[in-house]
Amino acid sequence: MQIVAHPDDDLFFMNPDVAQTMENGVPVTSVYITDGGSFGVNKVPGRPAPEADVPAYVSARQQGLRQAYAQMMGLPLFTPWERGTVRLPGGREAELNRLEHLGRRVDLVFLNLRMHARAGGRPVNLTHLWKTPGVLLPTQPAAGSPVSGASSYGHDDLVQALVALLRRYRPTLIRTLDPDPDAQVHDQRHPRGSDQRGYSDHPDHTAAALFAWRALTSWAAGPGGAAGAPAFQTEAYRGYYNQRWPHNLPPQTVALKTRHLNAYGGDPSWGCGNSSGCGDYSIGGDRVLASDRGWVRSTHRRYPTAGPRAVVDADDGRTTVYAVLGTRLARWSGRPDGTPGDPEDLGGGPLAPSIAVTTAADGAHLVFALRFSRLGPGVRHNVREVVMLRQGPRGEGRDREETWQSLGSPETEPRRTRLTGTPVAVTGADGRTHLFVRNGHKGVSTRVLDTGGTWSPWRRLPGGHVQEGLAATVDGDGRVHLFAASSGWMEHWAQRGARGRLKKGSRRLVARPGDVPDAVTAADGSVLVGYRRVASDRVMVERLAAGRPARWSTVADRPVSGYGRVALVGGRRPEASDLRIAVGGGALGGPDGDSTVIRAAARGAAPVLGTPTTAVAPHGGPAVMVALGLDGIPVVTRVREGSGSA
Fold first, then answer.
1. What are phi and psi of 289, to 5 degrees?
2. Phi-psi category of 532—alpha, beta or left, where left has phi over 0 and alpha has psi -120 to 50?
3. How is the beta sheet containing 365-375 ordered, strand by strand?
4. 250-276 pLDDT, tens digit each
5. Which residue, 349, 343, 345, is CA-closest to 321?
6. What span, in angstroms and rounded, lies between the C-alpha atoms of 426 and 472?
7. What is the 3-state secondary structure (H, E, C) of 138-161?
8. Is this structure's pTM higher than 0.85?
9. What is the DSSP string of 566-591?
C-alpha cells in the first residue's frame, strides 16, 4: 500500500518500485489523501490557461492515474476501470477504482481532502489539519465521482480512515513519503518554491507521511496488540529534495519512469472517455523530463539501509536475524539446519525500518534503532531518538522489553531531532562499540560505548554534508572506518590507531556516487567500499590496502542492473575475480557485467524487499546474506568461498 498526499507522488517519488511490485504480481493499493485540485487550472505549457475548475482538474488527474496504472499493468491506456466507493468511519465515503487482469489487481483510493480550503475566513490545508486542534478540512469529489457528496475530516478522523483502510487491505508493505525531510538552504539555485519553512519538501508530503505513520503505529498497537496486524514492513521516500542529491537512476530506468509519467500527464487530444480531461497536462509529452528538477532521475529512500541484519554466532555458527516488523523489533533465532525459526517480538516501537546490530566484547548482540518516541501534532509531540537493546549471550534478557535504552539524539531541540539519521554501529578490536548517525547539519555524530558499559557524549566528526545511509567496518589492524555519500564524492573517516578518534580519511574516492555505500573487510584485512556511480547502473568497488592507510585501488567498475544501494558479500578475497555483489530481487535495469552478482530470491511467491545485507561467519566460515520477503520471512543464504554462487 502506498499512502501519499497527491495524485502523482507515487509516480514521481516511489517509482520504479511501484511498477516493479506490480510486475511481480503483488496486489497494490494506492491511497491519495488530498484531491490534488490545487487551484483548478489544468494548463498545457505554452498555451493559454483555461478557466479554473477544481472538480474537473481533480477528475483529470485521477484519469491520468488510471492511464498510468493501466500501462504499468501492461494494458491499453484507456482500459475501463470498475469505479465505486468504500465506506469509512463516521459515514464518510472514498472513491475506489479497481483494475484486475490475469490475477493481478490494483486499487486506487481517493479520499479527496481539499489541498486549499478556507475555514472562518482563513486558509486551511493538510498541514493545519496535522498541527492545529479543531481544524476541519472538507473534501472535493471529482467531477462524475460515484461518491454521493462532500464531507469533512478532523485530525483523528483522517487517522481513523487510514487505519480502516489498513485493516481492510492488511498490506505487508506500506510505502509513505518522508515524515522528517531534510532541512536545506534555499538560495537562487534552490528557491524555496513549494517547500515548507524548515524542511525541504512540500508541506502536504510531510503531513501525509506523519498521518500515515500515526495510522500504522495505531494499527500495529490496536486490538490484539502486535498480533492484530500482519508482519508488515515500511519504506519511506524522499520528495522534492531529490534535486539536492545526485541522480541515482540509470538511463533505462529514467526512460521507464518517464513513460509512466507521460501516461499520467496525457494530452487534451486524447480520447480517454473522461469529459473533464485526460491527465495532468503540465506533465505529459516528455515535458516533465525537459523541466525535471531531479524527481524523474532520482528515487531516494529516506532510510536507504533499511532491512534485516544477521549475526553469525561464534559458538555454534547459527545465524540470528533482526529486523523491524510492524514498527517493532523482531528476532529470528537460527535452527541447526540454518533456517530461521519463528520471530520473537522484542518491542521497542515505533521504529524506523533501518537498524544496526553489532556483537559486543562479551558476545551480547547490541541492536540500535531510530524511534518515533513522540508522534503527534505540534513540535513538542514530534521527537526522534536513538535507542539500543542489549540481547545477552544465549538469549539472556531476550524477553525483557524494559531493557531498551535511550541514547538520545545529537540534536537537542525537539524539532531538530526529526533530522536525526538511522544508526550504524561497529565494535572495534579493543572491544569498544562505535555508534554513528547523520545529524541535522548533514554531518556525522558519534558516541562510543567503552568496555565498562559507559557511553561517551555525542561528538561531531569533522566535515560531512552527507546523505542518509552510512557504512562502517573494522579493518585487519583493528581500525574503524566510516563511509558516507555526499553530493559529489564519497566521504571517509578512519582511526589512526585502534583506540584513536576517527578523523578525516586518506582521500575522497574516485567516482561521484549516485547512492549510499556498503563497506566490508576482506580476508586479508583490506577494506572494500562499493557504491553506484551517479546516473548509472555501474558499480564501483574500491580497496584500501591492508596496513597501508593511503593506498587505494579500483577493484571493479562494472554494470549491475537496478538502482540504489548494493551490498558486498563480506569475508571474501579482494581480487576482482572473486568479488561478489548482492542486489535485491526486484531490480530494474540493464544486463550485469558478469556472473558474480548474487540476487536475493525469496521462496515461493513472496518477492524480496530491498537490498540484502551480509554478515561474516567466524573462523573462516561462509559469508551469510539475508533479505526479507514481502511475507516477512527471512531468506538466509550462505555464499560459498571462491565460487561466485550461493
1. -75, -35
2. beta
3. 351-359, 365-375, 382-391, 405-408
4. 999 999 999 999 999 999 999 999 999
5. 343
6. 7
7. EECCCCCCCCCCCCEECHHHHHHH
8. yes
9. -EE-TTS--SGGG--EEE-TT--SS-
